[in-house]
Amino acid sequence: MRSLPLPVVLTARLLPVALLACVGWAWSTGPMSGSADTEHKDAAPRPSASASHSPSESVAAKTYAKPPTPCDAVPGKTVTSLVPGAKTAGKELAATDEAVRRGCSWSALKGYEYHWLDVSFEVKDSDALAKQAYASGDKGDGTPQEIGDAARLTSALTTKDKQKTREAVVTVRAANVMVTVTYNGSDFESKGAPSAATIDKGALQAARDAVTALRATGESTPAAAS
Questions:
Q1: Cα separations (Å) of 218 from 80, 106, 121, 122, 174?
Q2: CATH code, domain carrying 106
Q3: Tag placement on the chain: N or C end, fewer CB within 10 Å?
Q4: Closest Cα partner for 186 from 66, 13, 3, 35?
Q5: pLDDT tens readout for residues 97-123
Q6: DSSP state of 34
Q7: Any idea of the CA torsion for 55, 131, 25, 81, to the nearest 10 degrees?
Q8: Each residue's pLDDT tens digit, 63-76
């Protein structure tokens, strides 16, 4: 699990954390190519090896064409509840290609309590590729959840400079889209952190909201069976 954003000085915790979750985003596409056999001009072309697949194999299932608007994915009432003092509009994270990856974050320090919420969407070229991505990230330490097509929750309590922070991460696969929600909190007065139940519940709520937004506003394309 990645290290938690705990600035050295208290005032620094008011700064945006927009650089998180948007560095190193990369993807690749490998379309199949094929050529007809033109050895004999008048003969009917024979299918190449790359064109020998059945239609269900050669046409990838892609349910969603692009991510929803990320800062609209979590309702204002959820943001107000999970990140007291934060602007409900959120701050969209920079992305190299918004047709593939988009994210939004909310953070605020109210009194001595700091909270941070991050939601991101990543569109894969097919449902099958999203399944592979979800499986490759499974380290066996997550708790299965009934969100989207597959989901898991991981959480941890860490301590840095005697300050405790609790963080929960929800990873969801919804068709060909990977949805990741990160939610954490700290109490700078007590040096403690919110309870596991509070942080886990908040992360799961944001994840449900994000998947609902995806299904409501994501552009759908005709999909073959995966």
A1: 24, 22, 11, 12, 11
A2: 2.60.120
A3: N
A4: 13
A5: 999 999 999 999 999 999 999 999 999
A6: -
A7: 130
A8: 999 999 999 999 99
